[in-house]
Amino acid sequence: MAMSDTSIGPDPDGGWSREWVTVANARVYPPEISALVQPCGVVDAKGEYCGHSATWRGRRPMMTPPENPVEPVATLAGRHLFAGQLWAHFGHFMVESLARLWAFSETKPESIVFIPKRPAAAAALKGYQRDFFELLGIDVPITILTGPRIVEELIVTGQGLGLGPIDRGTPEIHEFFHTGFAKDVEPDGPK
Question: Which of 44, 46, 131, 185 has its CA at 20 to 30 Å from residue 149's CA atom?
Fold first, then answer.
């Protein structure tokens, strides 16, 4: 299957926001600088940047190919889902950090892999993030990579939600939240 052009922004009606790629022996690079636009993301074993891994705002990517990346020394074995950047800010977490989880049920990864938005960020989930993942039915480990890592098999989904034209979300992300969020929570209150 031919992949869509990732040099243009995500589109809720089609294109790369509604597809995923699987990258063998992916190199995942967290940001090294704290900035609005950061060199970080996923590179394949041949050194090609995986455009599906970039987060966009409006008409420009907030993640760009890493410059002179070092070869990672550690490997994460197995099949994992790249979820992009993990934001500590609640609003950005909701709109940008959850934007790639739409293929979770279909791809059945062993874990979810994030990179932090800020290099100095803690490598642990905040309480509200843990609670939100639990409400989504995410029952696999969540890894936050603070250093470069090779991932044996990495599923990289397109950005299904965000800021700009993608703000209304793709049908896939709508379905993911509609069918998966808080499905075990029983109503408690007056009819």
Answer: 131
